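# nightly structure sweep
# worker-07 picked up a monomer target from the shared queue
# config: single-sequence mode, recycle default, output format = structure tokens
# input follows
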Amino acid sequence: MPASRQRPTVRQLEYVVAVADHLSFSAAADVCGVSQPALSTQVREVEQRLGLSLFERGRGGVSVPDHAVAVIDAARRAIRAVDDVADAAVDLQGELVGPVRIGIIPTMAPYLLPTLVRELRRRHPRAEPALTEERTDELVRRIELGELDLGLLAAPVPSDSLASIPVAIDEFHLALGEDHPYAGEGSLPSGVLAGLPVLLLEDGHCLRDQAMDVCATAGASTDGAIQGTSLTTLCQMVSAGGGVTLLPASALEVEARPGSGLVTRSLRDPRPSRTVVLAWRDRSPLAAMYAAFGDAIAPALQAACPTT
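# output follows
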């Protein structure tokens, strides 16, 4: 590189990536914690240093021209490399220090997040958990890009560039209204699903796919199934007599608490479940520490997913 050419700073690259992610200078400024004029000035300086326009600005908003995609991808890699330098130093200390960016899927967040954060603070008291709720595909993408350090999600992890460790088995239970004919029964064979209207989460939730697999194994059709946006919504529909749904054991204490109008029954033959995993970028300098953390917190997370 010619000596006269000035390199963009890491902070400037973060501004560029933020604009590319949000396609908005104002939103990027909010995320980065600076004023929009200050961010715009820094992005313009990067463009001047590179001799290249990175964004097209118009009445329709901000867009990334094709010729700038490779530059912005390189900026992401540069930011990740700088983060890796800091992570390598943390690894030498043997303790997580500072922000630990954790993503968790919506069907686990309300139920397992308290245990995860409590264990992180107990084992790494100098860590500062920064939490994000994302659906599986977006969560995986953000870990791959280095925007998140850890993710709590269900197996299988749809990425070859992530490593993961199982931390709990979360059994599925059948949630029924209190006046349902099966409410007085004990454990039920999974085959009963074949004769019941099963409510599902909307597209994009991995729990929807898992529930559909359980139903298919039981010979139950999910064609035309009523959909909900969250487990809480599904449970309210069930308590109102709108059908039945599959509820992970981790959610029972919250969603099927006394007064909820729900009765839950364990299933058998087979006993359906999902595997909860902790995932991270496999080339992270902290990979060994993340794996050890996963091993250490597994008993607490399993206790939050009671088995029958």
